[in-house]
């Protein structure tokens, strides 16, 4: 996979009314990939995107594009286009003219405009819709027009700020696949903003997890899911069991009142840590035979697996298992060394 960096943010600080919204944020965006900014509302995703687009001027820090400093370059001179959540189509123009708008501003000749607009409408699956009024289209179709309008300018980077937020779940899923296909087909960089962890994991080559103006972790969806670097990421990415523990020595952790073998090392002796264990990584065994013993509080069938809340020494665990257990039943729980993820304990 291509690993060149197309956009680099270096120590970006953005303040609104004296309050730091981005606090020395640094980030490399790989070229020709699908990169997602993921984080809770207000963490600074849109602001970061707008710094890349040139709509927000950082108080300090540098934006590099292809290694060149573009911090002071206005938006229209950047090789970047944006698709906003509210598609901002022109209601009085038809589909063709909405897509052609930017090309007309650039004063391209009519034949070239026509060629590029029709090509782009075909790419987004709207061939034959040229003359349709945008007001007479579904949300999904309008979204495609907005995407075609962003892509027709042949940007090297397309910024998408929660572009599917207004769509219903089914259409949203369809458009997710569609966007992924488009990104591959156009072979350009997409930077996508969402607060939906599942969407981020499904669509992205690289996920940037953000919280309170800081990058928490950057990695592939697998890395982020399987090897969260801190409890915020683990918690935000998916339901997990997060417990306080202590690292007794290399490869030896204590939590839930007993000692476990793990694969982590390099912590100080007796360092307080947080332990993350995925619900699907806990093996249910007969009571008395497991490393831990718990009592099933409730069982919900989820289609493929059973989701159970299990009380273990007064603490509630979440377990996903293909094995059905009964409410009130005592069960054993086994956890392999690979399934135990150790992280330094976060400051409160
Ligand atoms: N124009 C502005 N003036 C003042 N404060 C702002 C402005 N824009 C954003 N903020 C604040 O900056 C912080 C980050 O906002 P931002 O829009 O980047 O968050 P976000 O991660 O995109 O959130 P959401 O998921 O809700 O869209 C928030 O606390 C927000 O209130
Ligand atoms: Mg936002």
- Ligand list: adenosine-5'-triphosphate, magnesium ion
Quick one: overall form?
A: elongated
Give the C-level CATH assignment of the largest domain. Alpha Beta
Question: Ranges with pLDDT <50 over ≥5 residues?
Answer: none
CATH architecture grouping of the largest domain: 3-Layer(aba) Sandwich
Strand content of the residues, in percent? 35-45%
Mean pLDDT: 91
**Tally of structural domains:** 2
Structural class: alpha+beta
The percent of residues in helical segments reads: 10-25%
Give the strand order, joined by hyphens, for the main sheet.
Answer: 6-7-8-3-9-10
What's the Cα radius of gyration? Answer: 24 Å
Number of strands: 20
Give the H and E element order: EEEHEEEHHHEHEHEEHHEEEEEEEEEE
The major beta sheet can be summarized as: 6 strands, mixed
**Fourth-tier CATH superfamily name of the largest domain:** P-loop containing nucleotide triphosphate hydrolases
């Amino acid at each position: 996979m291509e690993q060149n960096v197309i956009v680099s943010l270096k120590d970006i600080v953005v303040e609104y009314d004296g309050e730091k919204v981005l606090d020395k944020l640094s980030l490399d965006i790989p070229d020709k990939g699908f990169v997602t900014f993921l984080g809770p509302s207000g963490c600074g995703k849109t602001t970061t995107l707008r710094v890349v687009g040139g709509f927000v001027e950082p108080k300090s820090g540098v934006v590099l594009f292809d290694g060149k400093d573009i911090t002071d370059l206005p938006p229209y001179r950047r090789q970047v286009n944006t698709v906003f959540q509210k598609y901002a189509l022109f209601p009085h123009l038809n589909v063709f003219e909405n897509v052609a708008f930017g090309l007309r501003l650039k004063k391209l000749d009519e034949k070239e405009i026509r060629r590029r607009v029709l090509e782009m409408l075909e790419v987004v699956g709207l061939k034959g819709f040229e003359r349709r009024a945008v007001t007479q289209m579904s949300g999904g179709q309008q979204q495609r027009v907005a995407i075609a309008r962003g892509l027709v300018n042949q940007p090297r980077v397309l910024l998408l700020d929660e572009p599917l937020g207004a769509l219903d779940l089914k259409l949203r899923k369809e458009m997710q696949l569609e966007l992924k296909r488009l990104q591959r087909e156009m072979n350009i960089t997409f930077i996508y903003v969402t607060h939906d962890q599942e969407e981020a994991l499904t669509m992205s080559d690289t996920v940037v997890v953000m919280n309170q103006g800081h990058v928490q972790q950057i990695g592939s969806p697998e890395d982020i899911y399987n090897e969260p670097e801190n409890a915020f990421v683990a918690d935000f990415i998916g339901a997990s069991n997060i417990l306080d523990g202590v690292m007794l020595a290399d490869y030896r952790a204590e939590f839930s009142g007993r000692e476990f073998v793990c694969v982590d090392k390099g912590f100080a002796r007796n360092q307080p840590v947080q332990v993350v264990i995925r619900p699907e990584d806990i093996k249910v065994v007969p009571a008395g035979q497991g490393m831990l013993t718990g009592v099933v509080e409730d069982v919900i069938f989820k289609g493929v697996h059973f989701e159970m809340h299990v009380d273990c020494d007064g603490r509630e665990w979440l377990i996903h298992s293909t094995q059905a257990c009964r409410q009130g039943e005592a069960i054993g729980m086994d956890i392999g060394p690979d399934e135990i993820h150790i992280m330094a304990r976060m400051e409160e």
